[in-house]
Amino acid sequence: MPEEVIHLLLAFAGNLLSSLILVLGIYHHVSKRRDYVFTFLLVSTAVFLLCNLLVEVEIDLAFALGLFAIFGIIRYRTDAVPIREMTYLFIVIALAVLNALAPQSNGILLISLANALVWGLTLVLDRLWTIRHMSTKVVIYDRVDLLSEGRREELIADLEQRTGVQIVRIEIGKVDLLRDTAVIKVHFDGDSQPGHFEGQGGN
Question: Considering all CA atoms of the chain, what is the largest pairwise distance in Å, rounded to the nearest integer?
Fold first, then answer.
């Protein structure tokens, strides 16, 4: 087997292992969302192969930075990507570019250390730190009678039953007395209730 093929396979395996640790070992363990696991792993693989196979091109650095920027601002047309998932997407692209280009000049040891530092910091911030991820639903609410003073607990109970989330706090916005409706922002713990996406609304 040619030496170039062996080198590519070893580098590919190393990048895949790095992505699996980040995506399955850290991200999926907390969020339990399989849809983004698919996206993160394939984006990481595609970026790695592009950068690795084009490393000899003279514009490799400009290409890598341009590719990094393009993927870094992706927003799917059908659904806005939450900030947390966008951050993970940014990280997997960064590691893919790093694993593809940096070993040529910095060596395996330094690249492995860089990967481990990213894993460690992500683990601390996403799993071990006490800061929780707050998500929001915007609700068009039709029971304005519950907005009066002294009925807040009854209002929250009704919103929890309708939205299916355990509410942390609410913000009452515009009230339309002609239609007997109000706009209410419902804030809940997105980490403990990952099935409810940000930005969704309901009655």
Answer: 77
pLDDT for 104-123, tens place per residue?
666 788 888 999 999 999 88
Q: For 138, left (φ over 0), alpha (ψ -120 to 50), or beta?
A: beta
Q: Are 93 and 47 in contact (CB under 8 A)?
A: yes
Helix extents (H) in the chain: 3-20, 29-31, 34-53, 60-72, 83-101, 103-123, 152-163
Looking at the DSSP bridge assignments, the partners of residue 171 are: 185
Burial of 156 (0-12, 13-18, 19+ CB in 10 A): middle
CA distance 66 to 136: 33
Is the pTM of the predicted complex or chain greater than 0.70? no
Q: Are 133 and 188 in contact (CB under 8 A)?
A: no
